[in-house]
Amino acid sequence: GSNVLRMSSGIQIKPKTAVQKGKTPPPLPCSLEPGIKPQPKPSDKLNPKTVDPFGVYSRPSSAFASTYAKGGIPCRLVHGSVKHKLQWECLPETVPFDPLLVTLAEGLRETKHPYTFVAKEGFKELLLVEGATEKAIPLLPRLVPVLKATLAHADDEVFGRGLDALVQLSAVVGPSLNDHLKQLLTNLSRRLMEKKFREKVTVTLQKLEQYGGKATVAIIKSKIPTYCSVSS
């Protein structure tokens, strides 16, 4: 009953196992309900080749990472030959904005792959769906504090993602953002003093004015007196 084949030369050959080295395991299914994952062998957590970043032994460092690991984000990263893209489990138009848009905004503060890509691209694509304006405006009281934390982050890439997300949100909700804008301007003013971000922050402020209307200029100047309106 031994699985070891004995050759005439005395060399022992073990039959090939079902899993071959070097092959990439199939991607985890993405669903709104957490799936049942196979339990790894205790020895697996000691072997770097078998460590699953979303496995049972992994301790997600944030709420977003935990939600993603459990399949609570209805999209996943697909590695393309030229660039990565998101694959949605269902049409983004059918996904409830509450709480997904807020969850994706929270994910903008992630610093590890694939969370960084999923959060940034997911937030962007969700705001592109038909009816996004009506769906996003009621979430502004919860979205703005999350974006504020993103813009206060010490990591430059996180701050950059926050700027992009703010412009995307402003383009969708327009003047509705004005009531919440002051919360965000302090962090923008601070980064405006840094040479490497001066141009990008300035462009962001101009976009906020473009999408928010004339009332936006007074709000921006109340926190950043040196701001020059694009219409002046």
UniProtKB/TrEMBL annotation:
Coiled coil start-end: none
Region (Disordered): 1-48
Domain of life per record: Eukaryota
Compositional bias per record (Polar residues), positions renumbered to this chain: 1-11
Name of this protein: PACRL protein
Lineage of the organism: Eukaryota, Metazoa, Chordata, Craniata, Vertebrata
Gene: Pacrgl
